[in-house]
Design brief:
Blueprint lengths: L1 H8 L2 E5 L3 E7 L10 E7 L1 H11 L3 E9 L2 H13 L6 E4 L6 E5 L8 E4 L10 H5 L8 E5 L8 H14 L4 E4 L10 H13 L3 E5 H8 L5 H8 L6 E5 L5 E5 L2 E5 L12 H14 L4 H16 L11 H10 L6
Helix pairs in contact: 1-9, 2-9, 7-8, 9-10
Length: 326
Amino acid sequence: MSALIDGIKGNRFAILGRAGMDLTAAPIGAKSEEADTFHADLGGSSANIAAGLVKLGSQATLITSISDDAIGRFCMNRLHHYGVDTSCIRTIGGEHRMSLAIYESRTDDFQNVIYRNNAVDFQVTEEDMDRVDFSRFTALVSAGTVFAAEPSRSATFRGFENARKAGLPIIFDVDYRPYSWPSPEVAADVLSRAGEASDLIVGNDEEFGFMAGGIDMGFAKAQELAKKPGRVVIYKMGEKGAVTLADGQETQTGIYPVDAIKPVGAGDSFMAGLLASIAAGYPLKDAVMRGSACASIVVSKPGCAPAMPTTAKLDAFLADHPGPTT
């Protein structure tokens, strides 16, 4: 596990996956079809992780492709706003488009409408990966969505290979989104291959269950993956907290209860908080708890990237908030 931790402590992250636009209905509590206005900001799981990392003091470079249009430029501007390095983003002309998510700041009857038709981020190629100087970074992070279609799937596996050659540990957020995949069977096979190639795997009970062929087998799948020496697996269970599997040990942690206003963004913020906290020198269990606190902060505020905490806000939350559940 030392190589994984050392790579994360280097604090220079290359992140594979999409950027997009989020439109959040306003005011808080409004349904999308009844909203007066919508607030636009950066979205997309990988872009959210990158923004969250930078807010917590890390360096993050997003590796993806964007459309040569106003929405692509909007996303690029927002990445710059959050301090994310965009030097490895390729702009593509034609009819490929950015992802768009329209959702609400409410938990009752929550609606999230995703537009992923002809998604531009799936157009990342193996040649794109070969142009990246992975020696600039100390760890590679990937969300599972990049594996859902070609050429992005093959490109991501090439990125894994190139990162491994450069000595980088690979961090994998399973992030299974059924609407992006041609079939559950393809997804289970590809995501399992990605897990086998990774050093740190983060997923929820449903995602591990999906990889295993049934939710009742998810924890056994996590245990199986954790048997590889040096690998860490984090099995998230929502309100029940998480189990961290590392070095033959299983450590259960709770959550920080909050009044949530939406159910999205928690996973991206958890990943950012986890990695930035390990980079800052926190022990693994404490880093998991700080990631959990980041998740709680994000679900209690509108938006995803704008709701990600800074280090000061995270520390203030931990100081003021009741301790985690057990």
